Amino acid sequence: MIRTTAALGALLAAAPALAQDVPLVPREAFFGNPERTMGRLSPDGSQLAFVAPLDGVMNVYVGTREAVEDASAVTSDDTRGITDYFWAPDGESVLYLRDTGGDEDYHLFMVPPGGGEARDVTDVDGVRAQVMGYSYAKPETILVGLNDRNPQLHDVYALDLTTGERTLVYENPGFASVLADDELNVRIGVQQTPAGGFTVMSLDGESPTELFSLPPEDALASGPLQFNAAGDGFYMLDTRGRDKAALVLVDAASGETRDVIAESDEADVSKVIFHPTTHEPLAYAVEKERVKWEALDKRTRRQLAALDEALEGDFEVVSQTKDNAQWLVYEDAATAPGRYWHFDAKKRRATPLFTTRPALEDAPLQPMQAVTIPSSDGMELVSYYTLPEGADADGDGVPEEALPMMLWVHGGPWSRDNYGYNSVHQWLANRGYAVMSVNYRGSTGFGKNFIEASHGEWAGKMHDDLIDAVGWAVDRGIADPERVAIGGGSYGGYATLVGVTFTPDAFACGVDIVGPSNLVTLIESFPEYWKPFLDATFNRGIGDVATEEGRAAAVERSPLERVDQIQVPLLIGQGANDPRVTVIEAEQIVDAMKERDLPVTYALFPDEGHGFARPENRLAFFALTEGFLAENCLGGRAEPIGDALEGSSLNVPAGAEDVPGLQAAMEGFEPRIAN
């Protein structure tokens, strides 16, 4: 039965008041464009590139690290912005990927670093371009993959960076991925097996020959990374014969493991710093609750120690010069927006370059607590939570009284939550909520057994993990059991729909962003280029819907089948062009709820794909979310919608009346659709 208005009112009235002197940080500070982000050094270190707004749209700027403010835009995208770019190895151009309206059919463009006309070097409609390899050994060429011949497979082309001409160098006979050496010769192919594993093949001879196999249980945690400089071996992450992924060197001719370079019993080896030209591994990171770096030589050990001393948060080396003398380092601290640092690797000196969101530097950002929570069947669930300012007077991680809480679930599911600055955590904590994120089984970085435990457990033990974490928070007085919401994107959106259908008494409301409601239609509508990976991912995780047994399993775990169980309000956000979780996933459950007169608000964005790339659309959706949570289930603070819809493409086919101020804000509102 739906909660009555009177019952909702009593719950909201019981919400503890946040300290009145805590400033309400504007939504735009969290979800608008960052001032600068995605810094990259040119190969010789003389120039610095980054992404920043140009007329409100994220574009690539190039300047110097000594005069960041004087950098100039070298691209002029006026629609969704640029989210992926890199320097050409010769330093003579900047290359970037761009799709249309979120359809993920990416084209590759190149532009001179001094500015000029951008050139589309993969100008084939309906085709997805991928960068397959580049090297300082052949700086005038990069390898590009195009699925123009077969939409499931990417053939490999050599792209001449001087002329922009493409030449076919490898016609893909059926490999899910390929790996090239330092001379850009395609030498390794990875082929999916029907059981869900992969066979790693050598392409050095006249025909492919098998080097070794990755059984299904190793498929999602293992795989080749890059060749060594000599070309006689390649580095890979390997879980064969162990639980946690190790960094190993494999002989390219025999497939035998030559050396186990790094491993840990705590977590997978997750990041590796390689020398840009020798390709020797210099350091590696493992990440359980926090990132821990280990150097592989004395010089790198001293360099990492200098960074540890200079920086407060976890960090990652995101760019290196060709000679490895300069690094660009991203610092991720929970109570500060992301920061970029220049690191002189010879002098071991770190110099700050820029902060991604300066407006948040003086904001009341709150500490993030890292905890490992036991699941009901003995799994370790690495989790993170954030409390509102003033809620934890003793500093012990427990508020003075139980709080309304948002459980925010990561997507994937083969991904993970991390420690550090988190816009959703800080925004909701500022509104008066506890916020928790859980690495449920299937999350990556915690070993292959943790992934294996998720197979067949969509809406099963994967969801039990989330419920166990909520129970942990309730038992410790962090969360009020009557005022827990669930939200997230992609798999997190699916978990939200599972939460309000499979466990209808557990949550007070849900916020679903691009989440699948029907696992059969989800899998049947996947883009063609996902097909070579399906046996190792969704077919093992859910079931092969081409079989009677697999289809039945997918139906059983689909929230759409249990829509009658919904008792609480639901907010759904969807991009109309999403190629992964298509618009039908939202429309099916919205229609089913409307037929049953269940409370649903549906926010549709015609110019978005899998998530909200345009800041105008992010701001519009989170303005709806804020009012929805305050009015319908959690009772915290909310910034009025005001002009938050301006410039967005928002369409609300259902439930506008359930968000305070939305109907008034939409009067006279003209959506702006950008493609």
| Shape summary | globular
Distance between the termini: 42 Å
* Fold-level CATH name of the domain at 362-666: Rossmann fold
Class per helix and strand makeup: alpha+beta
CATH architecture of the domain at 362-666: 3-Layer(aba) Sandwich
- CATH homologous superfamily classification of the domain at 362-666: Alpha/Beta hydrolase fold, catalytic domain
Secondary structure tally, helices: 13
Low-confidence stretches: 4-8
Main β-sheet: number of strands, strand sense, barrel status? 9 strands, mixed
CATH class of the domain at 362-666: Alpha Beta
Strand order of the largest sheet: 28-29-31-30-32-33-34-35-36
Strand content: 25-35%
What would you say about this model in short?
The chain is of the alpha+beta class and 675 residues long.
Structure description:
There is one protein chain. The chain contains 13 helices and 36 strands. Strand 1 (about 35-40) and strand 2 (about 50-55) form a beta hairpin. The protein has a domain at about 360-665: Rossmann fold, CATH 3.40.50.1820. Helices cover about 20% and strands about 30% of the residues. The strands form eight sheets. The chain has a nine-stranded mixed β-sheet with strand order 28-29-31-30-32-33-34-35-36, with helices on both faces. A four-stranded antiparallel β-sheet has the order 1-2-3-4, with no helix packed on it.
